[in-house]
Amino acid sequence: MGNITTTNGGSHRRRISNATRRSSHPLPPPPLTPHPEITAHQFLYPGPSQSQYPHPNPNAPIHYPQPQYHYPGGYYPPPPPPMPHHNPLHYPYPVMAPPAPYVEHQRAVTIRNDVNIKKETLQIEPDDENCGRFLVNFTFDATVSGSITIYFFAKEGEGCNLTPMKENHIAPVTVHFEKGLGQKFRQPAGTGIDFSMFEESELLKVADLDVYPLAVKADASSSNHDESNETPTPGNSNTNSQITQALFVKDKGEFRVKVIKQILSVNGMRYELQEIYGIGNSMESDMDENEQGKECVICLSEPRDTIVHPCRHMCMCSGCAKVLRLQTNRCPICRQPIERLLEIKVGSEE
């Protein structure tokens, strides 16, 4: 009986060992229950897609869609992404830089002006012999003899001829002169203008047909006029003339003259005179290297030969002007916008 017990006990032990061996394998996982389908919330909006932010430039920063947040009380959209500042392709209309002013080249030639009216001296003064009338006076230089004609309300025509538009009210006055520098001109007494005869608006502006309230024409003969002693005529082909056109301005109840333009007619060619600031020093042939005021304001070494328009400052050399036009469009003297640059080549006539 002891053997059977022993055998049975051993057999029992083997069965327990087999059961323990089978229970060591992991059990299969339970089946997964599918989650219920989530419906769209009425306050939940789709976020921006990446197609709304095109990036044609591969080096441009990429803006990813912003995450969406759902709060119990409602949905608050996140702030929009900032606009790019370094990629011009994001702007519908790119900002274009203003074009650089072009450089125009001209060769300066010498024109002989036989008579010159100094426009800064042109003024009017009361006529002592005729109350209420005013006379024109100024200073002029003349290398030959000639004549000066005073026009009131005149229009310039062909060949630099002046036509009076109100001759029935006040007629032109012509006075002859001899050659000489620094001469004083004064309109003859009794021939001046009476401002009360005209509307104030006519005196203070240029009319629509370019009729100037005041025009002074100085006619000078050529050099052979001194030998012939002939009286110069404005229509003569060998006569040079200068026209000064002006209007009146009222200052503290009194009228004074304001020059608008000066015109030079030489051998049938018409030139409009314009002052160039700085050309007097830079064009001198005996330029001293140690003397200041004649060199370019940028490099401070080369002479000035380039004019800035429309301010007419001659302040740069040609080399600095070509570099400056690509960097800024402002005059280095007055900071006004530059429309064009005019390079002057000074040389003798051929």
From TrEMBL:
Entry-linked PROSITE patterns = ZF_RING_2
Renumbered to this chain, the Polar residues biased-composition regions fall at: 1-10, 230-241
Task: From the UniProt entry, list the residue stretches annotated as the region Disordered.
Answer: 1-64, 220-241
GO biological process terms held by the UniProt record: protein ubiquitination
Pfam families according to UniProt: RNF157-like_N, zf-C3HC4_3
> What family, per the record?
Belongs to the RING-type zinc finger family. LOG2 subfamily.
Write down what this protein is called.
Answer: RING-type E3 ubiquitin transferase
Q: Which organism is it from?
A: Lupinus angustifolius (Narrow-leaved blue lupine)
